[in-house]
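pinging the channel bc i need a second pair of eyes. not urgent but kinda urgent?? the chain im working w is below, pasted from the shared doc
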Amino acid sequence: MGGGLIAEAPGGPEAMVWTDLPLEKPGPGEVVVAHTAVGVNFIDVYFRSGLYPWPETPMIPGAEASGVVEAVGPDVADLKVGDRVAYVLPRGAYREQRVLPAERLVPLPDGIDATAIAGAMLKGLTAHYLVTSSYQVKPGDTVLVHAAAGGVGLILGQWLKALGVAAIGTAGGPEKVALAREHGYDHVIDYKSEDFVAEVERLTDGAGCEVVYDSVGADTWRGSLKCLKRRGMFVNFGQSSGMLRDFQMSDLAKGGSLSANRPMLFDYIVDRSELLERSSALFERILDGTIRLDVAATRPLKEAAAAHADLEARKTVGSTILLV
């Protein structure tokens, strides 16, 4: 028996209530993981609020975590008790212990910090598929990233720099602007005091960007399209300010034969081989120092509601980690 946070119905942060949760024995292909740390992400908010439909009720939020294998069921060959692991799944991580399919777990190499990686599996693997699959960036490209001081944004800035890309970020306020600059961005626009569309035009001498990575949504999508070169790519991978409204395919034609992509991480790690390949690329970047993981804030798991409130109010930078 372990504790966890459940929601009986969609609502605000207060909808999550701490309760005792029974723990079943692992079945074939399953293991028990005792969580070390759990990351906080907007997908957790989207499920808790009901923006994303619930496949089951009650619902346990939480998409990424690290931990230690406590028990192994039959037919598990690659993991043993005591192994350090991490994972990313749509929900279910806001608890102390959990039975999980072994094929969804990624062993952690020596040198990878268990607390920091708990807030970087979803964010780091997202950054990887964004720059390799949603749009494959190449040296010399110019890229715009919204929310550059957020969890994904800070990893993206470092990854883009390593790939030889000219990266422009947007962030809200001087502190967030400075933080984004420290993480690889060539230019960072303070959207609170500057028109990011005009600034991108100025910074690129009117040429625009090959791709815009936009996780903000409602507040930014129209401007994002204006920042693109002819035949550029608009990648909308989140909606922290709300869903896109009134978007039409004709908007892409008016922008210059643009393309648009609305990816979800879980479609890029369906197969275990792809999950391990992307995880290995992330771990390699961390271990060689190309990407550093900044844990901006930690809270006990029971304080997840406060973490959600801060995230929704855009008071956070980088990763917030819930300690178990």
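so The first helix runs from residue 42 to 49. and DSSP finds ten helices and 15 strands in the chain. — does that match what u expected or am i reading it wrong
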